[in-house]
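Sorry to interrupt, but I need a hand with the structure work. Please put the record directly below this note.
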Amino acid sequence: MEHRWSKRKALKLDVLLYHRGMPIARSRSRNIGLEGMCVDAGIELPEHAPVDVEFELMHKGRRRRHRLPAVVVHRTEEATGLMFRTFDRAAFQAIEEYIYLQGQAQEDIR
């Protein structure tokens, strides 16, 4: 059963994943929403493991770096689903701008 409360948009971003403050993997996002993202390749962490995910998005015409705490919600051999754990206003606004303004021409992810 889906628990998403916002759209997801396809988006290829370079991301850096941290566990316990240490960088553990570089990856690429597959899609992003206000509450989480899906990244390529399974990371070697169990479901419910806490991570930080770092990425850059354009917001108000400037590229900005964001680092958000997240939790692993599912894994496959191809991808890892992450749910953001806290609200960060700047990151939320940048993601919202992408999903609802810049990403209008791109396909929604279901």
